[in-house]
Design brief:
This protein is mainly alpha-helical and 77 residues long. It has one domain. 49% of the residues lie in helices and 10% in strands. It is built from three helices and two strands, in the order ααββα. The protein has a two-stranded antiparallel sheet with strand order 1-2. It is extended. The mean pLDDT is 95.
Length: 77
């Protein structure tokens, strides 16, 4: 088992706590595991050349998730 510690500004801690409350997550470990699962999935999707996006089915529109870590992924041919 490896222990990982972070130093965050109080403002970021409050943001994390708000996210936890909204998702009904009770521990920071569970928050981290959920975030890691989502990030791993997004990376795998990008590797296959897919776009990560939020879809508005009613209006037939989508909004692409833009973040440097995903932009750095090169799709496999």
């Amino acid at each position: 088992m490896v222990r990982i510690q972070f130093e965050l500004p109080e403002e970021k801690v409050k943001e994390l706590e708000a996210l936890m409350e909204a998702a009904q997550i009770t521990t920071r470990k569970d928050l981290f595991n959920n975030a890691l699962t989502l990030f791993e999935w997004a990376l795998q999707e990008r590797k296959t050349g897919r776009t990560i996006a939020s879809v508005d089915e009613e209006n037939k529109k989508y909004k692409e998730l833009v973040m440097p870590a995903l932009s750095a992924v090169t799709p496999k041919s």
